[in-house]
Specification:
Layout lengths: L3 E5 L4 H12 L3 E6 L2 H10 L7 E5 L5 H15 L4 E4 L12 H32 L2 E6 L12 H21 L4 E8 L2 E2 L14 E2 H14 L3 E4 L1 H12 L2 H8 L11
Parallel strand pairs: 1-2, 1-4, 2-3, 4-5, 5-6, 6-9, 7-8
Helix pairs in contact: 1-6, 3-4, 4-5
Length: about 260
Amino acid sequence: MDRLVFITGASSGIGQALAWRYHQAGWRLALSARRAADITQWAQAQGIPAERFRVYGADVAQTDSIVAAGRACIDAQGVPDVVIANAGISVGVDTGMREDLDVIARIYATNNVGLAATFHPFIDAMVRRGSGTLVGIASVAGIRGLPGHAAYCSSKAAVISYCESLRGEMRSHGVRVVTIAPGYVDTPLTQRNRYGMPFLMKAPRFADAAFRTIAAGRSYRVIPWQMGIVAKLLRVLPDALFDKAMAGQPRKHRETR
């Protein structure tokens, strides 16, 4: 069976690594990002045959843009077997700064509304077919709120809750919903971080673990597994101890710095 995967944020980082992993497994690729030319250049440099991939330029923060990309994918390549809503942004914010309120709005537009808009064009078609997998890329940062990370942490917490809700809605229709919460993955998104990143993974290793998780149809997984243990500990840590542990920790960089 010639399977098809649709991936957003495919121009770099996790999205690009996932695209390569699926290509290695023999899947056709539907790849979307704002920098569509970068995806095409990368795919050609990797020697991916032109008939095995298509690129759809879209900005997930613009609902009509990513919905149109999804519909174009269905028209050109058919209904995907797997849709991975990977596109996201991570930047620190300071609620006391007026300009950061606009940053918060953009993070939510990308990480939350954009995720739902990515899934939207495919849901009815998957329900009619009675099969398909929708994958939301969350983060261990969604487990607890970290100082300086308020927008990103809350957006990823929302991804976890949203996908859990959607999983319940889709279950009776044969459509799976998978939530993957990466720990620290070595990508352009994390390379500017000012703090230690335990259990840092290379993107290809993460992509392989994610590929196997999606294929198994698991509902939720933290990758790597070590960060899964950390996440469970953070979830049960009393507030007083959590606050003490976070005191004095470096904050994530703001967009203007």
